[in-house]
Amino acid sequence: MSFKDIFFIVKTRLFEKRNVILMIILTILFIIIYSCITLISTVKDFSDTGLENDPEYLEIYVSREDKNYDALANIEHINFYGSFKYNQFLSQELPALNTDKLIGEIEIYPLIEEEDVLIIDGKNITNNNEMVCPKNFYPYSTDGNTKIYYNEYVDGASFLNKTIKVTPKIHEEYEESKAPVNFTVVGTYENIRTAGNIQTCYVSKEAFDYLYTDIESIIYSNSNGVPTTEVAYYSDNALVRVDKLENINLVKDELTKLGYNVTNIITTNETLVNMILYIPLFIAIIILIVVINLIYSFLRKKSNYRQSNEGILKVSGYTNKDILKINTLENTLVLYLCIIISIIIYLIIVDILNKYVLFELAYYNFYVAIPSFYLILTIIILTIILFIINNIITKKSLNSSIKDMLEDK
Predict the structure, then answer these.
(1) Which residues are CB-contacts of 262 (< 8 A; sequence separation ≥ 6)?
(2) Is the same domain home to 177 and 321?
(3) pTM
(4) For the residues 68-72, what does the mean pLDDT come to?
């Protein structure tokens, strides 16, 4: 029997009512499975390669009444300690980038450790007049309700060797004015899958010391008619950087024993993260079981319905192998139509989520990533399942089709 004959039979069967119903149900279930896999992959990827690589998750705020932080030098697992000023950032407007809807602006942080950035283009900072910016760069204000426009992202490499003038932040009442500093952008760093934001540029700690005031706050009060002013300094408190995320609690315990007050700069809710990971995994497994049962049930009923037709095909000269090819091709086309339609709908949903629902989280480089490997693996598993079920049901049906046809006569 020629392939043309097989294809003609399959074409007449493909959009029968039973197949259409199956396709609609499977398409919906496949979208749910893809969504669960995507949620798991996105959260895990963001947690593993984002949060654990974000320096702020390794930092601890440390304070002490006598402001003596000498003991920090002898504590194991501490990579860096210094003024809490190094946890702050300086906003610098870039009027040359202003548009009708956007305000040019970057945030400038001190580069505490060279390993904090993975350089993609150019080089890292080597002197106090150099700066590195994100590869995936959004040099615009993100304050308040400012919308993030995805088409306004730029390649940070386009800023290489350009000069950015930065105005130091001071308290005019207590500090003398400082001259602006011209920084040359010498490199871009990888920020696609980190928790760092999309407009952060780094300068050296020494440059940041000049740019950013040490005055944290000024408190004005009036006691018994006598006005008083109290100035609080960032250097009164310390920023501690731990070497690894798993050592945070060890360092905190040691600091507490030495009489320091400690607080995580950023904390993570591991229970919530685990729930986000395991709940969709459980749902995906349940739905996969439902899909297997659904495919088996539909194919079995369809096979029972078509037993007399298959008997006629055998009498007409079609072999069991030919009929198996017809059923396999038909069911494979049904499966892959479901897969193609569900993937198209899934991609549209992901695009809508990134652009119109989760756009605010883009500030932290959080977006829904498409886990291509796991989706392909899922499709392979579904194909294998279909072939196994199809072979079992078709062979069983073929063994009884002639007998049933003769009995009906």
Answers:
(1) 60, 61, 62, 240, 252, 255, 256
(2) no
(3) 0.69
(4) 92
